Amino acid sequence: MKRRDFLIQTGIFSASAITAVGSHAWVAKSATGNSQQQRLIVIFLRGAVDGLNVVVPYTETAYYQARPQIAIPQPGKNGGVLDLDGRFGLHPALASVMPLWQQGSLAFVHACGSPDPTRSHFDAQQYIESATPGDKSTQDGWMNRLLGVISNKTPIQAVSVGQTTPLIFSGRMAVANLARGKNASKPLSIDHPQVGAAFDQLYSGNDALSQAYRQGRMARQALMNSLDSEMEMANNGAPLPNGFASDAQRLAQLMVKDPRIELGFVALGGWDTHVNQGGTQGQLAQNLGRLGEGLAALVKGLGSVYQNTAIIVMSEFGRTVQQNNSGGTDHGHGNVMWVLGGQVRGGKIYGEWPGLSTTQLYQSRDLAIATDFRDVISAVLERHLHLNEAKLNLVLPNYAHTQKVVLIVK
């Protein structure tokens, strides 16, 4: 086995980190940096969540006609939506995030998504993560490009929750990976003192691979130190809850503890509801409940850091307006994006609403897209991370704003 392959397989760092270092070694910085550092976290719902049953257009007769079994009732009815603004309501399973809406730090952008017409999960996710819809030649992700324009070259400036680096974080910049659940603090072979010492000696040179190894080792050590400290304090040593809430809380605590961590990413599956989707209760409701609990845990865990954090929740595309014969929905087009944060102009549904009558639908079957997802991302990058036009063009290449979505207090 080649040395390079061993480093990847042992999980010291991701494949993208190996090509990221080049000839520049990482310079150590104190973890006692600026606690007011702006942060960005992206939650990707893989599988195409049904946005029409997340933020429900409950005043649309066509919605209820198209979904006789899976529509969410109007406010005040049994199992009804939680009213947002008199036109739209939130799925009742998401009650845990309603306080954020009421406090004005949660907003939604409806009829939003990628303009590319694909209904392939693989292609659509690639286009969302690369931010170049319709262009399969893009090899890096927009969050990696973002890291390139804000980077201070610390080894844990960006953290992806999961065993592998997703496309959105793939590219020339190094990204640290944090394993999910109980695996997050599971020792690797490299963590054994004798093994670690041997590899430290082997990769003590100035070549690019040795520098990449040392960067990966420092990233892992920094993450493990934070996790060990957090686990000792949590519930008198009792394990954290399973699932997204646990991962979200862990990511939040790492960000609070170490201000060098500016970018975070989590992907959640289970949103491809072709069969037995359910309405107020059922498959989608259960997943939304876990999502809401995880977001609430993330916000709570961030504490005062939430004031300087923006959280984007997105999916690759929406689902058909009409329910299918299996009590579910099929691959659609327009969807809803979420934006949370201490500086978000929340308590509002953004974007033009095209309507659900047959003549208003995309290809006579789907919610049309009135807001390009890159308009939402660019608004967050410009107003929250304070990127100028030149840097925005590097992160979102070959894209001109179609509209200004003023989501963030500037």
Fold and architecture overview:
This is DUF1501 domain-containing protein. Pfam families: DUF1501. The protein is α/β, with parallel strands linked by helices. The chain has a single domain, classed as Alkaline Phosphatase, subunit A (3-Layer(aba) Sandwich). It contains twelve helices and twelve strands. A hairpin with a 5-residue loop joins strand 3 (82-83) and strand 4 (89-90). Helix 9 packs parallel to helix 10.
What kind of sheet is the major sheet?
Answer: 9 strands, mixed
Shape: globular
- For the record, the CATH architecture stands as 3-Layer(aba) Sandwich
- Subunit organisation of the chains: single chain
Number of E-type strands = 12
Task: Please state the CA-atom Rg, rounded to the nearest Å.
Answer: 22 Å
CATH class: Alpha Beta
User: Termini distance?
Assistant: 52 Å
Strand content: 5-15%
User: How helix-rich are the residues, as a percent range?
Assistant: 25-40%
Reading the helices and strands in chain order gives HHEEHEEHEHHEEHHHEHEEEEHH
User: Mean of residue pLDDT?
Assistant: 84
